[in-house]
Write a structure and sequence with these properties.
Pfam families: BPD_transp_1. Belongs to the binding-protein-dependent transport system permease family. Keywords: Cell membrane, Membrane, Transmembrane, Transmembrane helix, Transport. With 278 residues, the protein is an all-alpha fold. The longest helix is centred in the last third of the chain and has 35 residues. The chain is flat, with a radius of gyration of 26 Å.
Length: 278
Amino acid sequence: MAISLSSTSPSAAPPGTKSAAQIRAARRSRVLTWIRVLSPIGVLALWQLGSALGVLPQDKLPAPSLIAEAGWEKLQSGELTDAIVASTERVAIGLGLGVVIGIGLGVIVGLSRLSDAIIDPNMQAIRALPLFGLIPLFILWFGIEETPKILLVALGAIFPLYLNTSAAIRQIDPKLRENAKVLGFGRLQTIRELVIPSAMPQILVGLRQSLAIAWLSLIVAEQIAATSGLGYLINNARDFLRTDVVFFGLIIYAALGLITDAIVRALERYTTRYQRTN
């Protein structure tokens, strides 16, 4: 009578269980996550301690508690809400213009070598101009109302989208375009159903970069005789030597930038989900 013995390797894990390496990797990931969370808290604690001991001068670097109190004061007075609404509106309009112009020019340049030869040198020359240097010219052209502020934001947002879109289109496999011609696609249909979807991951990278530059451009733009917005709030605080309010305004700028970046990252994950499943 034959008895079959099934031998199991001692190193093989039963189905459905994690190996020792996977457990260590998961534990390390959790530790790193906690470090990322606790690191800023530790910096704030040291900052507060340094302020309490008098190591950090309050007029130069106010304590986090004082900055929080200043922010609460502005929130209760309604100034913070009005400033956020005004600044967000400028960024939204400026970014919208930048998206349309940047992607539009990127598509034109990416599809045509002649357009590349005509448009790209001029775009690179404009890209080299500093935003601060354009403020006097924009004031002369458009005055001191909302138009120059929005256009400065749009100008900053155009170039990452333009560069990423044109580069992504140039990298599309020529065989795909040939297949589109064989299938009888017209030029607009090719752009809509082949070019834009193929370039979308890199366009979204450009959008994330444009968002960051849009908020940076807004700081510059709101130096132009602003009567509302976060830039006005910061400039007004500077005139009254309110360093705590200046710090709080900068923190709000950073927070808004992080929030909008998170939204675009979520959109990026959603639109490129098919690539991760393949």
